[in-house]
Amino acid sequence: MNIAWIALDWGTSNLRATAMSDSGEIIEKLESRLGMAKVASQGGDFESVLLALIDPWLSPDKTIPVFACGMIGAKQGWMEVKYDTAPCSPVTKLTNIPTNSKRITVSVCAGVKQDSPADVMRGEETQIGGVLFHNPRFDGLICLPGTHTKWAVVTNGEITEFRTFMSGELFSLLAEKSVLSHSVSGDGWNDDAFVGAFLDTYQNPAKFLSKIFSLRAEDLLRGTDPIITKSRLSGYLLGLEINGAREFIEQYEIVTLVGSPLLLHSYKTALNKLEITTKEYSGDSMTIAGLNRVQSGT
Amino acid sequence: MNIAWIALDWGTSNLRATAMSDSGEIIEKLESRLGMAKVASQGGDFESVLLALIDPWLSPDKTIPVFACGMIGAKQGWMEVKYDTAPCSPVTKLTNIPTNSKRITVSVCAGVKQDSPADVMRGEETQIGGVLFHNPRFDGLICLPGTHTKWAVVTNGEITEFRTFMSGELFSLLAEKSVLSHSVSGDGWNDDAFVGAFLDTYQNPAKFLSKIFSLRAEDLLRGTDPIITKSRLSGYLLGLEINGAREFIEQYEIVTLVGSPLLLHSYKTALNKLEITTKEYSGDSMTIAGLNRVQSGT
Lengths: 298, 298
Known about the structure:
The structure is a homodimer. By secondary structure, the first copy, chain A, is an alpha/beta fold. Chain A has helices at 36-41, 46-54, 124-134, 167-177, 191-203, 208-222, 226-244, 246-249, 261-273, 283-296; strands at 5-10, 15-20, 26-32, 64-69, 84-85, 94-97, 104-109, 112-114, 119-121, 140-144, 149-155, 158-165, 254-259, 277-282.
């Protein structure tokens, strides 16, 4: 096992470490629920948490460089790392975090901010860097679905503009904490229910706040399969979001989606329904590729 | 003290009892935090909770009628009371709930449902009945702001159509449970911030999901007074809602607002900004008036 460097995706809720070979291949992956928020709430000893996770990869006589991205660079994280300002080339600025251990060095990628409209990202810029690592001439529109979904325009290797949509967080709040929690459950999915709801709010975004209450009323009056209600709730949110992203979508023939397979399925289904072509990349792979780009200096 | 009947507003979170005279005047008010949800979670002995609250008003040798409305008639409440179906005259159907005590009789008003689009109300129909009690010839549009804001069309004494908007619940979830909770706080209010945000999403409802994240980003990048952020969050929600209610608003010159003074202020400010005239009634007073209407059989 010849570990050349370690890729670290340290977000709010998860910590994902990947041991990389000199030639950029994945040797091993380790994952922990000790996300930034949990470690911060437990006193913030980020170095010890990291060393405990990657201990099997370390040796006393060698220093392995760790390249990190995500909310670990936020104010509440290990060390606050300044944002780069769009338009900018993603994942080009690194900040070194001093460590007590000599077995590792730690560098964190800068997030990206936008002054107007005010917006921020931490972690997604690395995934965008990953798309550029695989395709250095990439020009176009990237959508990164998640808790705070980003839509970013990339031109000449730079993030020129982006918008964050709170759809993912709103879905969780509505499904788990609102009156809809009595009507939404299950792991299943219904594409038809999703698409119908998506088109409803895509065509009439202002109907969103009454459509979501209607999900509860329909269940009370007629009893609705909670999987159908869940798929519709997701559809109403995506209709509102994708209508809001039209200013970007209308300029491009293809939307490049970066994220987890489950989330990408709904975005792909919705966009394809509008006859917009999509191309998908795994979010995890793009994070590692983006960190590979910065560690190799390409 | 000559109590003729008791008006009961028993909602999800609160229980409000009002002792009424024969001539429809308020003698005394009592209030408790033992809303329907709390009593249901504690075993559901609604009769004991009610008797404990209104005990000072009761005597062993007299039966006092209690007229109730609200979520107390829901499935999880004291006894499930069927909905009346719109179009219908509000607060005309009563269901008697059997009690062990001979000191009271309890009647609960039917809620109102709408088949398509599916919608329900429990309590607001009584407030609409209150508007009709004060003005039997009322025809027009009534907006009842709250956790689940209702917009209802009243024609010839009937609720002909209505829509529920989840703005109030969404405001609470976003302000208290989302990433925005770090940026929203305080009891103050800023009308200018509210109006600016209201117009933003009223004109561009599909911007809602990105506008609300921008509140967080602006605070991170520039630091925003949490009162300003709170007022803007409220404005973005009302812009989305009021655009969604346009199909009703465009048919009427006046919107009749029924609710608490604080909530009515924001709706009045927003609607007046669109040059729509508003008329305001207190929600508590309309509940009592609606129950007065049904108990007096007018």
